[in-house]
Amino acid sequence: MLIAVDIGNSNIVWGLYDRQTLKGHWRLATDVSKTSDEYGLLFRGLLETEGLQTSHITGAIISSVVPSLTHTFEDMIESHFHRLPLVVSTDLDLGLKVIYPNPHEIGSDRLVNAAAAYAHYRTSLIIVDFGTATTFCAITQAGEYLGGAIAPGLGIAADALFSRTAKLPKIELARPKTVIGRDTVGSMQSGLIFGYAGLVDELVSRIQTELGQRATVIATGGLASLIVPESRSIQEVRPDLTLEGLELLYRRTRGEE
Question: pTM (2 decimals)?
Answer without folding.
Answer: 0.91
